[in-house]
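FAQ
Q: What does a multi-component entry look like?
A: The components come first, one per line:
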Amino acid sequence: MPGKSFVITSGKGGVGKTTITSNLGTALALHNKKVCVVDADIGLRNLDVVMGLENRVVFDLVQVIDGECRLKQALIKHKKAEGLFLLPASQTRSKEAINPEQMKELIGKLKEEEQFDYVLVDCPAGIEHGFKNAISGADEALIITTPEVSAIRDADRIIGLLQAAEMYDPKLIINRLSLEMVKRKDMMDKEDIIDILAIELLGVVPEDEQIIVSTNVGDPIVFNDNSKSAAAFKRIARRIEGETVPIFGETEQEGLIARLKKLFGLDRKEQQNV
Amino acid sequence: MLRRKPGAVEIKGFGNDVFIILSNEASFSDIESDLINRLEKSKSFLAGIAIVLDTKDRILSLEELEKLGTILSDKFDLKVASVRANSNETKEAVEQIGWKTVTPSQEAEKMADEEETRTIIIKQTIRSGQKISYPGNVVIIGDVNPGGEIEATGDVVVFGKLRGIAHAGINGDNSSEIIAIGLSPLQLRIAGIIRRSPDSDSKPDHVPEVAKIKDGNIVIESLDKSRRGEG
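Then the predicted structure of the entire assembly, as tokens:
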């Protein structure tokens, strides 16, 4: 069976595309799948930083497309996760350095010649050339939004643009949802968001301070067993694999456990600080 | 609600063109006053546009044509792109003024006849950045999200939540209406009148409502109340 390619996109910047690409890629690799994460944000490369692979970048995506190196040479193997590879973006070139046809060919090669089970493309913010590059070659789109009006508006725009590009069934990931704030009615709940966007919900990632720590040290949070967001990423990975797993916060029990875990984690942290 | 009384002058949009259509029967003075009247109502979005003057079978003298040209250019800042005329006398007068003449194609005529009852049904959610423009009525089976826009020369009906912008009667038809199952738009526009949403909005959005022009303002009523009022 040939592999599957996903583009991770949002329109708005700063909603967590890169974090989700790196963690979802890691979680899928932990399922013994061969996964390639592709940084399509040419000129603003940072997927390598978030994954802790910055010092291993020798060749990049633009050099592969220009034929300056072989595809295999540019792929960076992750130090911890077996089967996880990164294809970094170029930092010195611009998004116009490649075109959608070239990108499509490249993703095709990753799936067929390199036999990746999953190819995750981290899309740049915006709806211009970089976006068009990133979505070409993707079999499916994962839309990332946070529970904020502006992010939802941009996600809606992206869904429309994907339709125009004949990609019809994008899946939604809601990032940084705070159950506490939803309970206080200070934040939109997932139902409010789905009501507007009207697409299938693939998963909800809770607000988690530890993510900031993990991205800063370049170690995907999925490796941290105590993190509630890591659990969410693992569940999303299982859903991509075709399993039926409840959505975060959907069952009372799960919400309770997550909250207890958080309380416990917070307690420990406070003690350490003292 | 879809019927318009045919006046001396009709203003219609097809694609990128705006047509001013003169009736065959009305007197020239009626045409003058009706033209001013109708353009007054829609001048905000017509200004600067090149229009097509459709004289149908009417015979217009050089003097009459010049009068119309003056009204259009001086009063409303409208340019005559071309004139459609069936009568040879009118054509000659038009050429004397220096306007371009075109003979209406049968297809365009058919379109003009069908326009009032023409309706497009769109079965999809209109998302941010998407815009539907149609010369006729527009029915959306789905939501219109914030940032999405609907434009129609006739009515706009949304079988879903209208949260974006809807503009009915873009060519100045005051009898146009906007109807939605959930009417909580950012803006409503009917003909030349704009109404924005209240800054705080907390009404339930599943009561079917209709927006229409009453006494020069856009008013919103529940759909069944509005219909009872009419019957």
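Q: Is there any commentary attached?
A: Sometimes. For this entry: Chain A has one domain: 4-249.
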